[in-house]
Amino acid sequence: MVDPASGSQQQQQPPTLSITVVPLNVLDDPLGNVQGLDGDEDETGGGVLLQPLSEAAILEVSQSIYDDIVDDVILGIVFEVHRGAKLGLTALLEDGVTGDSQCDFDADETTRSSTGGGGETMDFDAASEMLSSVAVNSKKPAECVCPNCQRNMAASRFAPHLEKCMGMGRNSSRLASRRIATSASRQADLVSDDDCDDDDWTASGAGDRQDHRIMTGYVFEGYSS
Amino acid sequence: MADDREYAIINQRLVEKGDKERLRAILREQLIKSGWRDALKLECRRVVQEQGLDNISVDEIIKQVTPHARATIPSDVKQDLLNRIKEIVQNESDSF
């Protein structure tokens, strides 16, 4: 989008060459080539300097810049809707998402264009939209799908379920530790059938426990001296 | 076409000076106020539902929605933005 001329030039270059950032001043080089190919007017400018545009040319350039900007805005909205649809947010809370994001945009714009002039109406719009979306949401019960176990549940049960399901929080840490403990003991049962103490587990069940402690003490002393 | 070259230069200047971003913010604000944005969102959702969630892509939505979206921009908003752009382009052109 920056300049198609240099883009095509880069494509023509063999891949072994490193890509260099072209500053704006060099822009007249590919343009000069285009100009030479076109073979029309203004050698007097000699590069960057161009003639002032005609009225029609200004109109045309303005129109294409306008199209650019409009397409950009459309793209932004499409992205938002697409993302919402793919993540299932749209189905969850029909307008709540858009209300929130619009509120963000409004905040951005009112701060960025600090000219005032309609800032208050924007805030009012955003606020009323948010209120209406909240009202809509409270009327119908929303259903959530757990991303971890794909179970369907009411929105009010979603957070507690997620906490347990993902293994976070106080209760679920107990659950998770119990799960880990049971799996560990099962493994220990498979490996050795005498007592499953931690020391013995690493010592591969060979020899007496007392001997083992003495031995390790001796080894540590040897290392320290 | 001679206009491409001027367009490339002016466009780059507008991007560098932040004019384009500012214009975009103005347009977005005006389009939200006019309800165009919400209408377009509904249109996008309709397209998504029509095509099915699994085989929809951003490109596809844009292809289906853009003509209608461009045509439904309120004419006063369009005229206002075009005037602003024209002014800036005129200034840039004078500084050549």
TrEMBL record, chain A:
<dbReference type="InterPro" id="IPR013246">
    <property type="entry name" value="SAGA_su_Sgf11"/>
</dbReference>
<dbReference type="InterPro" id="IPR051078">
    <property type="entry name" value="SGF11"/>
</dbReference>
<dbReference type="GO" id="GO:0006357">
    <property type="term" value="P:regulation of transcription by RNA polymerase II"/>
</dbReference>
<keyword id="KW-0805">Transcription regulation</keyword>
<keyword id="KW-0479">Metal-binding</keyword>
<comment type="subunit">
    <text>Component of some SAGA transcription coactivator-HAT complexes. Within the SAGA complex, participates to a subcomplex of SAGA called the DUB module (deubiquitination module).</text>
</comment>
<dbReference type="GO" id="GO:0006325">
    <property type="term" value="P:chromatin organization"/>
</dbReference>
<keyword id="KW-0539">Nucleus</keyword>
<dbReference type="GO" id="GO:0000124">
    <property type="term" value="C:SAGA complex"/>
</dbReference>
<keyword id="KW-0863">Zinc-finger</keyword>
<comment type="function">
    <text>Component of the transcription regulatory histone acetylation (HAT) complex SAGA, a multiprotein complex that activates transcription by remodeling chromatin and mediating histone acetylation and deubiquitination. Within the SAGA complex, participates in a subcomplex that specifically deubiquitinates histone H2B. The SAGA complex is recruited to specific gene promoters by activators, where it is required for transcription.</text>
</comment>
<feature type="zinc finger region" description="SGF11-type">
    <location>
        <begin position="144"/>
        <end position="165"/>
    </location>
</feature>
<keyword id="KW-0804">Transcription</keyword>
<dbReference type="GO" id="GO:0071819">
    <property type="term" value="C:DUBm complex"/>
</dbReference>
<dbReference type="GO" id="GO:0003713">
    <property type="term" value="F:transcription coactivator activity"/>
</dbReference>
<dbReference type="Pfam" id="PF08209">
    <property type="entry name" value="Sgf11"/>
</dbReference>
<protein>
    <recommendedName>
        <fullName>SAGA-associated factor 11 homolog</fullName>
    </recommendedName>
</protein>
<feature type="compositionally biased region" description="Acidic residues">
    <location>
        <begin position="191"/>
        <end position="201"/>
    </location>
</feature>
<keyword id="KW-0010">Activator</keyword>
<keyword id="KW-0862">Zinc</keyword>
<comment type="similarity">
    <text>Belongs to the SGF11 family.</text>
</comment>
<keyword id="KW-0156">Chromatin regulator</keyword>
From TrEMBL, chain B:
<dbReference type="GO" id="GO:0070390">
    <property type="term" value="C:transcription export complex 2"/>
</dbReference>
<dbReference type="GO" id="GO:0071819">
    <property type="term" value="C:DUBm complex"/>
</dbReference>
<dbReference type="GO" id="GO:0006406">
    <property type="term" value="P:mRNA export from nucleus"/>
</dbReference>
<dbReference type="GO" id="GO:0003713">
    <property type="term" value="F:transcription coactivator activity"/>
</dbReference>
<keyword id="KW-0539">Nucleus</keyword>
<keyword id="KW-0804">Transcription</keyword>
<keyword id="KW-0811">Translocation</keyword>
<dbReference type="GO" id="GO:0000124">
    <property type="term" value="C:SAGA complex"/>
</dbReference>
<keyword id="KW-0156">Chromatin regulator</keyword>
<dbReference type="InterPro" id="IPR038212">
    <property type="entry name" value="TF_EnY2_sf"/>
</dbReference>
<comment type="subunit">
    <text>Component of the nuclear pore complex (NPC)-associated TREX-2 complex (transcription and export complex 2). Component of the SAGA transcription coactivator-HAT complex. Within the SAGA complex, participates to a subcomplex of SAGA called the DUB module (deubiquitination module).</text>
</comment>
<dbReference type="GO" id="GO:0015031">
    <property type="term" value="P:protein transport"/>
</dbReference>
<keyword id="KW-0653">Protein transport</keyword>
<dbReference type="GO" id="GO:0006368">
    <property type="term" value="P:transcription elongation by RNA polymerase II"/>
</dbReference>
<keyword id="KW-0010">Activator</keyword>
<dbReference type="GO" id="GO:0005654">
    <property type="term" value="C:nucleoplasm"/>
</dbReference>
<keyword id="KW-0509">mRNA transport</keyword>
<protein>
    <recommendedName>
        <fullName>Transcription and mRNA export factor ENY2</fullName>
    </recommendedName>
</protein>
<dbReference type="InterPro" id="IPR018783">
    <property type="entry name" value="TF_ENY2"/>
</dbReference>
<comment type="function">
    <text>Involved in mRNA export coupled transcription activation by association with both the TREX-2 and the SAGA complexes. The transcription regulatory histone acetylation (HAT) complex SAGA is a multiprotein complex that activates transcription by remodeling chromatin and mediating histone acetylation and deubiquitination. Within the SAGA complex, participates to a subcomplex that specifically deubiquitinates histones. The SAGA complex is recruited to specific gene promoters by activators, where it is required for transcription.</text>
</comment>
<keyword id="KW-0813">Transport</keyword>
<keyword id="KW-0805">Transcription regulation</keyword>
